[in-house]
Structure formats: C-alpha cells, structure tokens
Design a protein that fits this description.
This protein has about 170 residues and is mainly alpha-helical. It contains seven helices and two strands; from the N terminus they run H-H-H-H-H-H-E-H-E. It has two domains: about 80 residues, no CATH class; about 55 residues, no CATH class. It has a two-stranded antiparallel ribbon. The radius of gyration is 21 Å and the shape is elongated.
Length: about 170
C-alpha cells in the first residue's frame, strides 16, 4: 500500500487500514495489479468523500448499506466479522466503480506436464537471471514461471514459461 499512498493521507484511519489491507490482498490474489494500483488511491479518496456525505444524512435519508458500514466502523472495529464486512463493502464499491479490472487467469499456473516441458526446453538451466545467473537447476528445485498473469496466459504459457530456481523458504 506504500506505493499507492506515498504521502500522508488523512483518510487512512485506524478503522479502515486493516480493511483496506484485506481489500488489497484480495485484489492481488484475483486481479491484475498494474490495473488496480493506479486507480486505488483516487477511488479510496472518493469513497471516503461519499462516506462523509452519507454520514451527514439522517438514517432515513442515507443509503441503508452506508448506515450499516457506519455501524461497522463505529463499533467493534477490531472484530473479525466487522473487518470482513467492511472489506466486502469496500471491495464491492471498488469493483462497481471499476468493473473493467481484469481478473487473473485462475489457471495461470503450470500443470506438471507443462513444467516438465519448460524444464526440458530450457535444458534445466535457470532462465531468470535475477535469481541465479543461468545456473543448472535440479528438477526438484525448478519452478516454471511467467510474469504474464492476464487472461491470455494459458494461450502463451509454454512460450513464455521459464525455468527458475526455487527460492529458499
């Protein structure tokens, strides 16, 4: 989140930082990062502006979902169900505002057969220089990897796949 909120942002308060962190985790797991990172800051500022506008309205005038959100940020802010509810609300608002965000391909990983094909094609040599400068890779330490995570990944998986040394955990 540091790259999104590079300056002090008064809208980032205790009750929403945890929920925002959870939103970012969900986005990283399911959406193409390069698409949501540039819009995330402005979306959140707009979200907070709208929240403040809703808070000025009486409960009868305000949108029922915003009234519920206000309840969640006012009481039991650290409770798991409260955090989950706020995260769901924030994520839903973001996805309504930006429906064009691209989902990652759920099959972007390599099958064992594809991993084997990449390993043989690369003759067991690491192709990602930042990991090992092209050293020979044992089969057990080889990960087939690609930096392309969009929806077309499966079409190009084997061409883009690279043998890479497994990082130490």
């Amino acid at each position: 989140m540091a790259d999104v909120f590079s300056e002090k942002t008064p809208e980032l308060t205790r009750y929403n930082v945890i929920a925002l962190y959870c939103v970012v985790a969900e986005l990283l797991a399911s959406y193409v990062r390069d698409e949501f990172t540039p819009i995330f800051h402005d979306w959140f500022i707009d979200f907070e502006t709208h929240r403040r506008e809703q808070e000025q309205l009486s409960e009868d005038e305000a949108d029922a979902e915003w009234v519920s959100y206000k309840e969640k940020i006012s009481h039991s802010t650290d409770a798991g169900d409260s955090i989950r509810s706020r995260m769901d609300f924030l994520l839903r608002d973001l996805l309504i505002a930006y429906p064009q965000l691209t989902l990652k391909d759920p099959k972007r990983g390599f099958t064992p057969q594809q991993r084997f094909a990449v390993f043989r094609r690369d003759a067991g040599v690491c192709q990602v220089a930042k990991h090992c400068d092209g050293v020979k890779v044992r089969w057990d330490d080889c990960i087939a990897t690609t930096g392309f995570l969009g929806l077309k990944a499966e079409q190009h998986l084997l061409e883009m796949g690279k043998c890479r040394v497994r990082r130490a955990t």
